Amino acid sequence: MSALKIEQGSSKHSAYDLRNPNAEVIETHTLAVVVDNEAGVLARVIGLFSGRGYNIESLTVAEVDHTGHRSRITVVTTGTPEVIEQIKAQLGRLVPVHKVQDLTTEGPSVERELALLKVAGTGDKRVEALRLADIFRANAVDSTLESFVFSIAGSTEKIDAFAELMRPLGLVEIARTGVAALTRGAD
């Protein structure tokens, strides 16, 4: 007999009930971090995440102010609300950081990602790949007799859905930029 005893008629949870009512909610947040564009800054930001065991779902970096030598790092991360607050506070304390925005909580924002997908196939699979690309508004940016490279921009969910539909049609390779995001409105 098992060491776990379950009482009949009890209000206790079953051993098979994996839901934990006390479990903390894991949220996904998009953070925009404006930093000095200098050597080692990205390594310091990433070191903050890796050193504390925080996860990065997506990361994009580019210079956004050539005269002021500033770059924007967009990070999509997951964690409990407390962990997200810790991440923002710790990012704000780094010396080369000028601004930290939580685009998830600061109001409406626009998020897009770009992906390139190589799909190899002939015959009906090739025709179906073109049909699906048209539905998803993906563009064929390269074509050979045996393959296509499609370019698609949109939400992460849209790109995931397109990739899943392309898998059985011969998806060979995928490259993704990661999320780029801005708040909506004049601010």
CATH superfamily placement of the largest domain:
ACT domain
Structural class from helices and strands?
Answer: alpha+beta
User: Helical percent range?
Assistant: 25-40%
Percentage beta strand: 35-45%
Overall domain count:
2
Function: Catalyzes the conversion of 2 pyruvate molecules into acetolactate in the first common step of the biosynthetic pathway of the branched-amino acids such as leucine, isoleucine, and valine.
Subunit structure: Dimer of large and small chains.
Family: Belongs to the acetolactate synthase small subunit family.
Protein name: Acetolactate synthase small subunit
Q: What does this protein look like?
A:
The protein is α+β, with helices and mostly antiparallel strands. A hairpin with a 3-residue loop joins strand 6 and strand 7. The longest helix is centred in the C-terminal third of the chain and has 15 residues, at 156-170. The chain has two domains: 27-102, ACT domain (Alpha-Beta Plaits, 2-Layer Sandwich), CATH 3.30.70; 109-183, ACT-like. Chain A, domain 2 (Alpha-Beta Plaits, 2-Layer Sandwich), CATH 3.30.70. It has helices at residues 41-51, 81-93, 124-135, 156-170, and strands at residues 27-36, 55-65, 70-79, 97-102, 109-120, 139-143, 147-154, 171-176, 180-183. It is elongated and about 55 Å long. Strands 5, 6, 7, 8 and 9 form a five-stranded antiparallel β-sheet that branches. Strands 2-3-1-4 form a four-stranded antiparallel β-sheet, with helices on one face. The chain contains four helices and nine strands, in the order βαββαββαββαββ. Catalyzes the conversion of 2 pyruvate molecules into acetolactate in the first common step of the biosynthetic pathway of the branched-amino acids such as leucine, isoleucine, and valine. This is Acetolactate synthase small subunit. Residues 30-105 form the ACT domain.
